[in-house]
Amino acid sequence: MLPLTPAVFHILLALANGEKHGYGIMQEVESFTQGQVKMGPGTLYGSVKRMLTAGLIEESEERPDPALDDSRRRYYRLSSLGRRVLHAEAQRLSDLVTAARARHLLNEMP
Amino acid sequence: MLPLTPAVFHILLALANGEKHGYGIMQEVESFTQGQVKMGPGTLYGSVKRMLTAGLIEESEERPDPALDDSRRRYYRLSSLGRRVLHAEAQRLSDLVTAARARHLLNEMP
DNA sequence: ATGGATATATCCATTGCGGATATATTAGGG
DNA sequence: CCCTAATATATCCGCAATGGATATATCCAT
After folding, report:
1. Which residue from A2, A16, A93 is facing B97, i.e. has the nearest CB?
2. Buried-most residue among A59, A90, A99, B67 (CB within 10 A)?
3. CATH classification for the domain delimited by A6-102, as one of 3.30.559.30, 3.90.550.10, 1.10.10.10, 3.40.50.720
4. Three-state SS string across B14-47, please?
């Protein structure tokens, strides 16, 4: 299942903080990457559909305070599989970063 | 230009240690990832061709000691652009790892 | 000399990306 | 109240990347 595509990894990472709706994921990814990664709707909703099929995420039926809600929204959360996959991918990336650091390709420890 | 595909990143990382030939890159990626990432010839040579076009790598004319050489081999090295791109991608990944760690998705510092 | 590993190359089906487009709803200003 | 912009989801489609299959040639050890 690994490596994950950047889109899938960003979506999982955004959901690790708690459930979110599609558009919210898009915004969080853009703000997190300071606008460097702009996920268009095709990528977002296409990825979400594939991730639902793969069992990485689940649609949540819980709605927040109706005053803050929007009836159009569909909320998603990590599945336990999704959390495990995210963990494994983060570990894989961490190993890559360590290797890059060993090759003097990075500034010192964050 | 970022994010890089896993194949391109692995190739750049393998070349950061010094110039290598295609097959050697394949072996290094497989051993580095403990067999988790197996880069087939289609991916390797296809990626190399694209990376030459993009100016990330250059073919090297220098041959090692003829006793250790193999006339079929084609050696590649990082270009200065390739090194800068690799640096930027490593930094990007490092930021992702930091974010993952903040979300308690990783074991402590390596 | 023969076979297996080494080495490069191309083809192609499948998949993922991402811009364009469409449509509906919500919120806010005039 | 109305109109617009932002929000929100969804699909289509061209393009690029992946990776297995295939092909071919060379090197090395037995």
Report:
1. A93
2. A90
3. 1.10.10.10
4. HHCCCCEEHHHHHHHHHHHCCCCCCCCHHHHHHH
